[in-house]
Amino acid sequence: MTITVRPLAADDKDRWRVLWHGYLTFYGHPITEAQTEELWGRLMNGDELYCLVACTDGGDVIGIVQYLFQATTWTVRDKCYLQDLFVDPDARIGGAGRALIEAVYEKAADADASEVYWMTQQFNSVARVLYDRVGELTPFIKYRKYL
Questions:
Q1: What pLDDT digit, counting tens, does each position of 95-127 carry?
Q2: Cα torsion at 88, 93, 96, 97 (round to 10°)?
Q3: Are 88 and 22 spatial neighbours (Cβ–Cβ below 8 Å)?
Q4: Which parts of 36-144 are beta strand (E)?
Q5: What ranges make up the beta strands (E) of the chain?
Q6: CA triple 105-132-12, angle to 5 deg
Q7: Pairing between β-strand 4-7 and β-strand 49-55 as defined by DSSP bridges
Q8: What are phi and psi of 88, to 5 degrees?
Q9: Which of 32, 96, 103, 126 could form a disulfide with 5 if both were Cys (CB 3.0 to 4.6 A apart)?
Q10: Cβ–Cβ under 8 Å, residues 62 and 88
């Protein structure tokens, strides 16, 4: 199967929603319908948040990646944060995850970003096999406080 990656389109909304909710379910993170609609609008606006989709030969959307650019104090060039990556469980091991990550690498290079980075949970061992092949594990630990 050949995987193609393209920007999210308005007619992808139903399939994007299924994949987005699959991603949220995997991480056990509830989100309201209003938040989902707000995110969809921001992705369609395309000036802060971006989304690419992975498609099969037949055009079926099987994966999504959402990313953004951010200024940093450590370089004069922006960084690219790959925030959300999800491939339909029935379509995994076919190269869609790698294709999506590499497509973000291309977008970041085109934008002259200094790096692409992302986070995952320690227990996400299946995805980490891919991440270890396409990226570099860092020693940073994340802290947060919800507001």
A1: 999 999 999 999 999 999 999 999 998 888 889
A2: 90
A3: yes
A4: 49-55, 61-70, 79-87, 116-117
A5: 4-7, 49-55, 61-70, 79-87, 116-117
A6: 45
A7: antiparallel
A8: -50, 130
A9: 103
A10: yes
For 31-79, write each residue's pLDDT tens digit.
899 999 999 999 999 889 999 999 998 889 999 999 999 999 999 999 9
Pairing of the two strands 116-117 and 79-87: parallel
* Class of residue 61 by CB neighbours under 10 A (exposed 0-12, middle 13-18, buried 19+): buried
d(CA 135, CA 117): 8
Which residue, chain included where needed, has tokens 């707000």? 38
3-class secondary structure, 8 = coil
Fold of 4-134: Aminopeptidase (3.40.630)
Look at residue 62 and give its three-state secondary structure.
strand
Structure tokens at 43: 């992705």
Instruction: Take residue 6 and report the two structure tokens written for it.
Output: 């393209």
